[in-house]
TrEMBL record:
Claim: Glycosyltransferase is one of the keywords in the record: yes
Domain of life where this protein originates: Bacteria
SUPFAM superfamilies named in the record: UDP-Glycosyltransferase/glycogen phosphorylase
Gene3D superfamilies per the UniProt record, alphabetical: Glycogen Phosphorylase B
Species of the source: Ligilactobacillus salivarius (strain UCC118) (Lactobacillus salivarius)
Domain Glycosyltransferase subfamily 4-like N-terminal: 4-147
Gene giving rise to this polypeptide: rfaG
Pfam families xrefs: Glyco_trans_4_2 (PF13477), Glycos_transf_1 (PF00534)
Protein name: Glycosyltransferase
Domain spans labelled Glycosyl transferase family: 185-342
Uppermost EC category: transferase
UniProt keyword terms in alphabetical order: Glycosyltransferase, Transferase
Amino acid sequence: MKRILIIANNDVGLYKFRKELITELTKENEIYLLLPYGKNVDKLIALGAKFIDCPYLERRGTNPFKDIRLMLYFRKNIRKLKPDVILTYTIKPNIYGGYAACLCKIPYIVNVTGLGTALENEGILQKITSLMYKVALKDAKKIFFQNQANQDFMLDRKIIDKSNSYEIIPGSGVNLQEYQVKPYPKQEQVKFAFVSRIMKQKGIDQYLAAAKYIKKKYPETEFHIYGFCEEEYQSVLNKLHAEKVINYHGMVQDMQSVYQKISCLIHPTYYPEGMSNVLLEACASGRPIITTDRPGCREIVDDGINGFVIAEQNSKDLTDKIEQFLHLNLDQREKMGVAARKKVEREFDRQIIVSKYLAEIQNIR
């Protein structure tokens, strides 16, 4: 039996995308979770894990003194717990958890769930973050990347090199039992959906622009939005909802019922993703997708087979691809959904990720 510590920045992602791994690990190991308390923590505890609250983790904070306090808090708990291995997810746990693990001489496995804006955007913050990541990843037993572009980025900038042990895994994968194929809607009316945090980099402006154009030309078409406003879009969404351009539903927990109702998922993001989970869930549910030609999205869509690819920040291209989808008949749309399911079955089954982690943990002595 190993004592395993998992460090993450929030409970939502840990429960939604890693519960299968945690469930498997608890069978023969003692599992501790170090993260801020949230409503999913009790569900994680019910899986058999033990919880340590981390009140100092701010996902987007850049105050160096607070980050030093965070790293010291990680080190304090690692020294007290004495785990056999540490698993980290997302930027701050990867960096400061990596520092703390090194100081305590504990083996650790890192998951780069995406570069984040600090690394992707040129500037002084990118240089600082790159250096911090280089130090944090130096002694990692394994570095998992979720797409080729993220791995190439770190190799090109010499954040990692051939002395590191690294590998690409298919994102967080998707639970194919939880997200099963839903019968494709038989009505001719087409319902599109945007499922994401409402923020500029997720492509909400492009989606709204396309919705305005398409609704005038094809008034029976529906555009739905699911997610909470992380940026100042609430008044815009309320106005367009009142005008019946869109249907804004806010945050929804039961995503399976959402995918069941829709004809196609639109994900026009240009956010630095690791691998888009909403695309994986929609495909697993047998729904076609329209998404951007960028890392974390392009891997999931085969253009013209299970959906369409669009250029980043291009409302015209998105509108054109929506019209192209509208011109397909019902049988063609349904075949796209079938192809989407087959693709995730082949390439993105979450059990692939679970097996990779189990093998790496078993190799640590």
